Please model this.
Amino acid sequence: MNLKLQMKMNLNKKISNNEMIKLAKKLGGISEAGDYVNITDKEIDFKISKKQDLLSLLFQNGVGSVIAFLEKYVFYYDPVQIGEVFSQDSGRIALIYAFKNYIYVVKLIDGYNEIEISDTKGESKNILCEDGRKVEIENHIVMAHVLFGKK
Model:
């Protein structure tokens, strides 16, 4: 499966030159020709394409370490969508949210009837949505944040 990961986020603190070099090396190790990476001291924006499944894209092969690395530079008082994963075959298959100083991956299962929310350690919580109603994903991010025991 050919997947595309796209993320754009504001940084809550300035990234040092050494940290920027570390991040660039991590992204350089997983990016391919035609991918886009832009890192400034206030914002990170990148698009990466891979031929593999979602789980290995996000939690293996360096992307998970990039997302975990970025957690120390993110802080949002409210849940904010900072990225998404697309499949050329089936369209959008996951959303990436930031809340407080954590990053979560939201996988839509069977439309909006069920979602799976994972943290950067790969732990996940499945949440059923009542009556198949579209519920704000941001509400579920807050609930999962509490269920994961994060402050």
Notes: Helices lie at 17-30, 54-59, 63-70, 137-147. The beta strands are 2-10, 36-39, 43-51, 76-87, 91-100, 102-109, 114-118, 124-128. The CA atoms of residues 62 and 138 lie 27 Å apart.
